[in-house]
Hints:
Helix content is 39%, strand content 17%. Helix 10 links the parallel strand 7 (217-219) and strand 8. The strands form two sheets. It has an eight-stranded parallel barrel with strand order 1-2-3-4-5-6-8-9, surrounded by six helices. A two-stranded antiparallel ribbon has the order 10-11. Helix 1 (2-9) runs parallel beside helix 11. The protein has helices at 2-9, 30-36, 53-56, 66-78, 95-98, 106-124, 148-153, 156-172, 190-204, 226-237, 259-277, 297-300; strands at residues 14-19, 44-47, 81-88, 130-135, 177-182, 211-214, 217-219, 242-251, 282-287, 310-311, 321-322. The mean pLDDT is 95. By secondary structure, it is an alpha/beta fold. The structure holds (3S,4R)-3-hydroxy-2-oxopiperidin-4-yl beta-D-xylopyranoside (XIL). (3S,4R)-3-hydroxy-2-oxopiperidin-4-yl beta-D-xylopyranoside is lined by residues 20, 48-49, 135, 215, 247, 296.
Amino acid sequence: xxxxxxxxxxxxxxxxxxxxxxGTGENQDPYYMAELNNTKxxxxxxxxxxxxxxxxxxxxxxxxxxxxxxxxxxAEANGQxxxxxxxxxxxxxxxxxxxxxxxxxxxxxxxxxENHITNxxxxxxxxxxxxDVVNEALNDDGSWRETIFYEVIGPSYFxxxxxTAQAAVKAKGLKVKLYYxxxxxxxxxxKSTAAQNLVKGLQSQKIKIDGVGLQSHFxxxxxxxxxxxxxxxxxxxxxxxxxxxxxxxxxxxxxxPTAAQETQQKADYQSTVGACANTQRCVGVTVWDFDxxxxxxxxxxxxxxxxDLFFQPGGPDTPLVKKVAAD
Length: 327
Ligand code: XIL
């Protein structure tokens, strides 16, 4: 069961969840909140949205820390560590940054990026266990994703982001770990190899990179086997960095799932948790929220869902049911 799997990770590894608070109905739902605050199940939290660029720098140079502070305060009151997410991503950017009439140059956009990274790392300091510095820089074939940063600055934006993060860590004497985070790098292939090359590229320039986040948004029955996930993790840890499972969910491609799919889902969750447990430098597993009621899946993948550990058969604000009995 999930509890047993979580226990096998503890205390050396964390088991945690993303949460979309404050800002959604989750934090109004007493049943959801009781489970979020259940530190036997969750020793780590990731803010699903509230530390993203649109939320933290809604106007150029004007930072809003309120939501992030509230999130950290909740986690700290529970003794849960926090993976801070994220600093540089092509998505969920504020309009002042993406507005097509803004004529960014490499120099002006680099300055904007540096200011954002430095500000947030220094402000939240070691209240963050880790930061996802760059999120999703790659296409599935391993080429650079054509983000605003890539198009305006070129591929060097990546190294600049980590150099800037490293400087902030050094300036404040911080311990916070600096991560690269992406999906479809949980199994060997062009994208995983490209992510390993990003790590090597930073290392060859002596730029700090502490870990790689394997998002792990999987589909029932299409989850890579535990052995595959372990050998892929080994390819990263062999470079001298940590790995973490950062956004685990296992969605059903059809709704409702069949009984066979429900059984398979349990095995799929266990492959990923088991791969982490068997990998010395896998520091922990984070699920991308734990309750289907508030999952990002149905809006992003229409017709799909049932990906999380719990659901609420009675709808929002009713008791949670675990999909797999604790055993
Ligand atoms: C998702 C959030 O869960 C949604 O609420 C939001 O609308 C879009 O972003 N990869 C990531 C996360 O790194 O930041 C994404 O989170 C899910 C995919």
